[in-house]
Specification:
Distance between the termini: 73 Å
Largest sheet: 15 strands, antiparallel
Radius of gyration: 20 Å
Oligomer: single chain
Structural class: mainly beta
Number of helices: 3
Helix content: 10-25%
Number of strands: 15
Order of helices and strands: HEEEHEEEEEHEEEEEEE
């Protein structure tokens, strides 16, 4: 009898595990753009009184990792202002996410210090019974916390996991103005967002090299209006590495230009010789 119970429990665990894997697979996407071990560095510039000032650096990495005992990707984007920038405006932002190896979101965190304001957004993802369950956490500047949880029939994303996914989009047949819509979540909200294709351009990076790039805008809907948050210029090749980022911040604007890259999955064919 004990053996039958043991076999039954093992079978039930396998069914539940399979159901979980199938559910998360509904929000999966085939990764064609990067491998774990990709590291990118950027120079950061702020617009201060109509003058662009070199004011810090940014780093972006994607590595192989483990999340809750399973293989995963861990990605991070960090911006750091230098002492010169701190005299104008203190900015310390760190975005972190985990996804499955087929890009289904698992966890997101954004710690943002902007001026005297410091906030933390967190999103925890799970996929029970073919649905998307998220637990959201928001830490306010005064140190108080707010928690909420929701279950959705569709897939939702944070701004970092959707960027990882977007790198594997195939833009071959896109026309200027093409839009990809999706729901975006952070520590205390869900809203509509989109990526808009703005065409192609040539961008010079801070490594003194030029690249053919795809120009993409990330927009969020706030108060019934679409607001551009970031504009990405990514290589027009299979890597889709961001060469330049234009960030539209609450206090103004910032730009990041690529300084170095390593660990890219494919040859960089978008470089202009």
């Amino acid at each position: 009898m004990k053996m039958y119970r043991f076999i039954f429990r093992c079978s039930l665990m396998m069914v539940l595990l399979t159901a979980t894997m199938q559910s998360s697979a509904q929000c999966a996407f085939r990764n064609t753009a990067f491998n774990g071990g990709e590291f990118l560095t950027y120079n950061l510039y702020y617009n201060w009184k109509f003058v662009w000032v070199k004011a810090g650096n940014a780093t972006m990495y994607t590595v192989n990792s483990i999340y809750q005992g399973k293989q995963a990707f861990r990605a991070s984007l960090t911006t750091r202002g230098n002492g010169r920038a701190d005299k104008m405006f203190v900015m310390r932002d760190t975005l972190l996410c985990y996804t499955t190896t087929n890009l289904a979101p698992l966890y997101f965190r954004k710690g943002a210090k902007e001026g005297k304001r410091y906030t933390v957004d967190e999103v925890f993802y799970n996929y029970p019974g073919g649905k998307t369950f998220i637990k959201q956490h928001f830490q306010r500047t005064d140190g108080t916390h707010a928690w909420q949880q929701h279950t959705y029939n569709d897939c939702v994303y944070d701004m970092l996991s959707i960027f990882l996914r977007a790198r594997s989009f195939n833009p071959v047949n896109w026309q200027k103005g093409h839009v990809v819509q999706f729901p975006i979540v952070d520590g205390d909200s869900r809203q509509n967002a989109m990526l808009k294709f703005r065409g192609k351009s040539t961008i010079k990076a801070d490594n003194d090299r030029k690249y053919r790039c795809l120009e993409l805008s990330y927009l969020e809907q706030k108060d019934g209006k679409l607001k551009e948050i970031v504009r990405f210029y990514v290589t027009d090749d299979d890597n889709h590495i961001p060469i330049r980022l234009d960030m539209f911040l609450k206090f103004g604007s910032a730009k990041a230009f690529l300084v170095s890259m390593r660990g890219n999955k494919h040859p960089i064919t978008a470089e202009i010789q």
